[in-house]
Specification:
Distance between the termini: 31 Å
Helix content: 25-40%
Number of domains: 1
Protein name: GTP-binding protein YPTC4
Number of strands: 6
CATH class: Alpha Beta
Number of helices: 7
Order of helices and strands: EHEEHEHHEHEHH
Strand content: 15-25%
Shape: globular
CATH topology: Rossmann fold
Largest sheet: 6 strands, mixed
Radius of gyration: 16 Å
CATH architecture: 3-Layer(aba) Sandwich
Bound molecules: guanosine-5'-triphosphate, magnesium ion
Family: Belongs to the small GTPase superfamily. Rab family.
Structural class: alpha/beta
Length: about 220
């Protein structure tokens, strides 16, 4: 896609402990693939996907970084300009849930408290032997004002929903959306009302809503 072919460019960053499935969620969303032997991320990876949303061409840029501290670089530039954050834990490993505060603090310190939409994703919902209940994650999401969904990159469950609901919330915040306008676009779609929500909805149903429950899909 040429630079002028999209109305908005929306940056989404994916964060969370190592091995929770950040890269797997990204690859499922962008390429609809899954690798059971996904290599650990070193540094930063980046993928783009175009979506039509509420009658607009949206270029989603999804950034994926290493969960392992020693492979992480340049934290501030990673978060810069992000409108959405996908905060991931693994429902089968409690420590990845217990450490969410650390990741949330880092994201909020880097981006600003209300300058991005944060979606909490409990990944690996296909695993039966879970260590984090839906209820406790839901309570945490509500307290921290996060969107929330349980997903499985492996089984392609609720992955699109996680990304599209994040996008939907960005579109609901005109000030945030304004920052994502394509500067090369000659006619600003922002001159029309960007807050109108009567056109296209993401395919997801069972929307979690902010601070709300888990979307079961
Ligand atoms: N069962 C199951 N396994 C998954 C799922 N998502 C990812 N995995 C596996 O979990 C492991 C880690 O996945 P990654 O996507 O590399 O995790 P990551 O968070 O990117 O890890 P780092 O890059 O080290 O931070 C891999 O073996 C994946 O195949 C899932 O939904 N279900
Ligand atoms: Mg990775």
């Amino acid at each position: 896609m040429d630079n002028e072919d999209y109305d908005y460019q929306i940056k989404i960053v994916v964060i969370g402990e190592t091995q929770v499935g950040k890269s797997s969620l990204l690859l499922r969303f962008v390429d609809d693939t899954f690798d059971p032997h996904q290599p650990t991320t070193i540094g930063v990876d980046f993928r783009a996907k175009q979506v039509d949303f509420r009658g607009r061409n949206v270029r989603l840029t999804v950034w994926d970084t290493a969960g392992q501290e020693r492979f992480r670089t340049l934290t501030s530039s990673y978060y810069r300009g992000a409108a959405g954050v996908i905060l991931v834990y693994d429902i089968s490993r409690k420590p990845t849930f217990d450490i969410l505060n650390k990741w949330l603090a880092e994201a909020r310190d880097s981006i600003g408290d209300s300058d991005a939409v944060v979606m909490l994703v409990g990944n690996k919902s296909d695993i039966e032997d879970r260590q984090v209940t839906t209820d406790e994650a839901q309570t945490y999401a509500k307290r921290e004002r996060l969107l929330f969904v349980e997903a499985s990159a492996k089984e392609s469950k609720c992955v699109d929903q996680a990304f599209l609901e994040t996008l939907e919330k960005v579109f609901d915040q005109p000030a945030l959306l304004e920052k994502c306008l394509n500067p090369l676009k000659k006619t600003s779609p922002g001159q029309q009302s960007t807050a109108q929500s009567d056109v296209v909805q993401p395919q997801s149903s069972g929307s979690s809503g902010e601070g709300g429950g888990c979307g079961f899909c």
